[in-house]
Specification:
The complex is a heterotrimer of chains A (122), B (729) and C (109). Chain A is built from 5 helices and 5 strands. Chain A has 122 residues and is of the alpha/beta class. Chain A has a single domain, classed as Response regulator (Rossmann fold). Chain A has a 5-stranded parallel β-sheet with strand order 2-1-3-4-5. In chain A, strand 3, helix 3 and strand 4 form a beta-alpha-beta unit. In chain B, strands 14-18-19-17-16-15 form a 6-stranded mixed β-sheet. In chain B, strands 6-8-9-11-10 form a 5-stranded mixed β-sheet, covered by helices on one side. A 5-stranded mixed β-sheet of chain B has the order 20-12-13-22-21. The two termini of chain B are 66 Å apart. Helix content of chain B is 47%, strand content 19%. With 109 residues, chain C is of the alpha/beta class. Chain C has one domain: Transcription Regulator spoIIAA (2-Layer Sandwich), CATH 3.30.750.24. In chain C, 51% of the residues lie in helices and 25% in strands. The longest helix of chain C is centred in the middle third of the chain and has 17 residues. Classes of the chains: A alpha/beta (122), B alpha+beta (729), C alpha/beta (109). The interface between B and C is medium-sized, with 24 and 24 residues.
């Protein structure tokens, strides 16, 4: 049974590369371009992992996570945040919102794949 | 550039960067007039942030390095530690322009020139003035693959435990489940960097049912783990749970005292833990006894030493441990074999195979020379040489073999999606995933397989109601399997659906003139009619209990791979489509024929039979058809086709070949038998349309042309259309 | 009713995960309290995680504490895989569960 990952990222090329990489590992990938778009994807579909960028237009990653955690279907969904190491304050805020895992940008696909596999094996 | 990332994505990256730079420029122009606007500042920051993040993904380090500094300054602007001045905004315009230059380098695939590099350095220096502390990059690289450090062996043998494995002890925090983590995910991940030799799940902390909160995590693990990775790598796996878990990682051959401390620090009772550690194979009973005795002494407790209790109760018997160790050793050996892999560009393999082909030709040349000069010793050497060359060829071809499992696994998704689409519940069962075949074949088999799988699910497997009515399990089963059979790979797509309806197929085939009325085809022949081109119209399918759409296309695709496809079906029980493919496209099982002085090779599997022209088949007179046991067979003399001018032989032979639904005869001078050979591409040597698919070198050093049978058949067919009609009327 | 063995079967369908354990815990405990023997049919468990496995352990321990009998039957592949990974098959397969074991063997042969 393939595990489903919601990947939220405003950069089209990062989305493209990571979708390819995750699909190759056997995950089903749902893409969203920002937090607002991502919320519309949380429609009851089973999602095993959310990977979200922090800094995005329309709705940032932290706000999105806070909203997602309010939904009963997604309150226990693990979340990986993509961030830059300069955002210590954001990390504290994210932690409070229930984010447990951080990947520091820039990252290599392999790094993210390892983190993903640690949380949900394909 | 990361090796994982397809080139075309770089183009998206370049376009994206340019868009972001445009946005950045717009924002920079506004910021001069409105330096406090947080939205505008954020827009500039986000552009830099995205460029840096994406550049990192693509491994464009010079861009990451430069943008990193710019982004750091922008972050300080955002947090109002640094105010935008006209000097700073001017600097950022320069930064923006410079990023544009860097993007151009990415676009052109060139590295920055020295001049550009110098400019990067100058701008970085200027930017750094706005940063208090020097920027450290080190932190972000800490998670890169560390160098493998062999655990230090303690020289004092008596002080260390015997085990060759790591011991990992984990007690998860209450919040782990609620944070979306699953302890077992980490265990599964461990298996990807090593071998979980033994795992004991600790359930002692689960409170009595009425007090237990099912959303809290009370679990723990004791794991004996075999890996070449170092401690940091293992530790990093548990990064996500580090905050609220207790984690102990003991290296192989750790000191006994370290285990002693572990036992003391863990919450479970000493006895219970000791038992678990022995079960894990991390401690031998003797080692445990020593530890426990030590502890008993330290505790100054005069009661019976716990170690003795352990032995008295016979909780662990040495033979059990011996057996476990034996098993572990075996597992370890398998693992070592798996790690011994390298990735190679497929093009390099093609090149190698080409070179080997050249080598065969060169070898044949020498052999010929030796024969002509009658040099016995040289002949002996060349015999050895050609045997070795053949072995090299086989090894080279074997390098291109990949397992079909990857292709099969993609169908999990297809089956799931189609199940949803059709509202049918279907299980996919995969077998023979480790079966190997040529990479080129693997790449091309995906489409036909998808078609077959969809067809099986759509037309094969019945609706849930019908299945219940037929007394079948509600859930349908679709099986993909692969196995090797006589130099071929066989791929099967089977379903436990309704099977094909013979009557309907037969009627449809007669109606469409695919088969003559009154003929008595076998079941198999009937089922295989669905691969006929005329069969695959939409209305032919909808009222069939089987399938049909595009099956002719499937067959054509398979035949293009020099494969065959057929179908077995039992009405009411299901169908199996069997695809038979050559293991590789670079080698051909050929059938060799001679015309004049020339030698031709055709794929053996398309040869139906060989007959003498005069004896068995009578010429209908027009030189176009022969009567083959009542069947009208178009034929062609290869001599005429290739314009060979040499004396005709007395007894000509007809090779009857079949390609798809077409049969034709090829008239040749002599039949020279079967042989296996490497196909070489015809390149520009031959014009297309002549019916030549490639060439190969014979042992004699002569060149033999490989016939492109589909092409040749097209030519034969073209001259006179539709050969079936006269038969069916 | 006093002498007759009261039996019940609970079929777990769909997820046996952090999302469903709270609800299932009440179901399991209720089933154990009301009956002498409880059978958990796990054939239709589509997904199980650590929390789900932990709940099965709790049910088993709860049954022992209440001196009731708990059978787990027809483990779906995901359940069987996780129990195997956890090394807890011995724990679930103690003599109390002989019936379940022989049933499994019967199925596989």
């Amino acid at each position: 049974m393939a595990k489903t990952i919601l990947f939220v990222e405003d950069s089209a090329s990062v989305r493209q590369v990571m979708k390819t990489a995750l699909t190759r590992e056997g995950y089903d990938v749902i893409l969203a371009v920002d937090g607002r778009d991502a919320l519309t994807k949380l429609d009851g579909t089973k999602i095993h992992l959310i990977i979200s960028d922090v800094n995005m237009p329309n709705m940032d990653g932290i706000t999105f996570v806070k909203e997602a955690k309010k939904l009963p279907t997604y309150k226990f969904t693990p979340i990986i945040m993509l961030t830059t190491e300069t955002q210590a304050s954001k990390m504290a805020e994210g932690k409070a919102a229930g984010v447990k895992a951080w990947i520091v940008k820039p990252f290599q696909p392999a790094q993210l794949m390892a983190a993903v596999a640690q949380l949900v094996m394909a | 550039m990361s090796p994982d990332i397809p080139e075309e994505y770089l183009q998206t990256f370049v376009i994206e960067c340019r868009e972001l730079l445009e946005q950045m420029e717009d924002a920079l122009l506004i910021i001069e007039r409105d330096p406090e606007n947080p939205e505008i500042i954020n827009a500039i920051f986000r552009a830099a942030h995205t460029i840096k993040g994406t550049a990192g993904l693509f491994g464009i380090d010079y861009m990451v390095e430069f943008t990193h500094v710019a982004e750091s300054v922008l972050d300080r602007v955002r947090s109002r530690e640094v105010m935008i001045s006209s000097a700073l905004s001017a600097l950022f315009i320069e930064v923006h322009d410079h990023l544009g230059t860097l993007v151009n380098h990415v676009d052109e695939g060139t590295l920055p020139t020295e001049e550009v590099d110098a400019r990067s350095k100058r701008l970085i220096a200027q930017l750094k003035q706005y940063l208090d502390a020097p920027v450290t990059h080190e932190a972000e690289h800490s998670s890169d693959m560390p160098i493998v450090v062999k655990p230090k062996m303690n020289l004092v043998q008596g002080d260390v435990v015997k085990t060759d494995y790591w011991h990992i002890s984990l007690r998860f925090g209450l919040e782990v489940f609620r944070n979306g983590m699953d302890p077992f995910s980490f265990v599964r991940y461990l298996s990807s960097i090593g071998q979980v030799v033994q795992l004991v799940t600790i359930i002692d902390a689960i409170p009595p049912a009425d007090e237990m909160d099912p959303e809290s995590c009370y679990l723990g693990f004791e794991i004996s783990f075999d890996t070449d990775a170092d401690k940091l790598t293992i530790e990093n796996i548990f990064n996500f749970v580090r905050d609220d878990c207790s984690i102990y990682i003991l290296a192989p051959h750790s000191k006994v005292s370290e285990y002693e401390r572990l036992i003391q620090e863990l919450p479970e009772q000493e006895m219970r833990l000791g038992e678990i550690l022995v079960k894990c194979g991390s401690l031998t009973p003797t080692e445990l006894e020593r530890i426990l005795r030590l502890q008993a002494e330290q505790d100054d407790d005069s009661s019976q030493p716990i170690g003795e209790v352990l032995l008295e109760q016979q909780m662990v018997s040495p033979p059990v441990i011996e057996a476990a160790l034996e098993k572990q050793k075996h597992v370890k050996e398998t693992k070592k074999a798996e790690a011994n892999l390298i990735r190679v560009d497929a093009d390099k393999l093609d090149e190698l195979i080409n070179l080997v082909g050249e080598l065969i030709i060169a070898g044949a040349g020498i052999n010929l020379l030796a024969k002509r000069e009658k040099l016995a010793s040289l002949l002996q050497s060349t015999a050895t040489l050609s045997r070795l060359v053949e072995e090299v060829r086989d090894s080279a071809l074997a390098l291109r073999m990949v397992q079909i499992g990857g292709t099969f696994n993609r169908f999990q998704r297809v089956v799931r999606d189609v199940s949803k689409e059709l509202g049918k519940d279907v299980d996919l069962v995969i077998s023979g995933a480790e079966t190997e075949l040529d990479k080129t074949v693997v790449e091309k088999i995906g489409d036909p397989l998808t078609h077959l799988v969809r067809n099986s699910m759509d037309h094969g497997i019945e609706s849930a109601e019908l299945r219940i009515a037929r007394g079948k399990p509600v859930k349908g089963t679709l099986q993909l399997s692969a196995y090797h059979d006589a130099g071929n790979i066989v791929i099967e797509v089977s379903d436990d659906g309704g099977g094909l309806n013979k009557e309907k197929i037969l009627n449809k085939a007669i109606e469409r003139g695919l088969i003559a009325e009154g003929t008595n085809p076998t079941d198999k022949e009937i089922y295989n009619l669905i691969f006929e081109a005329g069969f695959s119209t939409a209305d032919a399918v909808s009222n069939l209990s089987g399938r049909g759409v595009g099956m002719d296309v499937v067959r054509r695709n398979i035949q293009a791979l020099r494969g065959t496809v057929d179908l077995d079906s039992v009405e009411g029980e299901g169908s199996t489509v069997r695809i038979r493919l050559p293991l590789t496209l670079a080698i051909i099982d050929g059938f060799m024929v001679g015309v004049g002085n020339a030698t031709y090779v055709m794929p053996l599997d398309i040869v139906v039979e060989c007959i003498e022209l005069k004896a068995w088949a009578s010429d209908e007179g027009d030189g176009q058809y022969i009567n083959l046991r009542g069947e009208v067979l178009p034929y062609r003399r290869l001599r005429d086709h290739f314009g060979i001018k040499s004396e005709t032989v007395q007894r000509e032979n007809v090779v009857v070949v079949r390609y798809g639904e077409h049969k034709a005869g090829l008239v040749v001078d002599k039949l020279m038998g079967e042989f296996q050979t490497v196909i070489k591409s015809p390149g520009k040597l031959f014009e297309s349309g002549k019916g030549i698919g490639g060439f190969t070198i014979l042992g004699s050093g002569e060149v033999a042309l490989i016939l492109d049978i589909p092409g040749l058949m097209g030519l034969v067919e073209h001259e006179k259309i539709d050969v079936r009609k006269p038969v069916s009327t | 009713m006093a002498n007759k063995t009261q039996r019940a079967c609970i079929a777990v369908k769909g997820e046996l995960t952090i999302y469903t354990v709270t609800e299932l815990k009440d179901k399991f405990l209720g089933g154990l309290l009301m009956n002498d023997e409880l059978e958990l049919d796990l054939s239709e468990v589509s997904e199980i995680d650590g929390a789900g496995l932990q709940l099965l352990v709790m049910a088993k321990q709860g049954a022992m504490a209440l001196e009731k009998t708990l059978f787990m039957i027809s483990h779906s592949p995901v359940v069987a895989e996780l129990i195997d990974l956890s090394g807890l098959s011995g724990f679930f397969g103690d003599p109390l569960l002989m019936a379940h074991q022989s049933k499994l063997e019967g199925e596989s042969s």
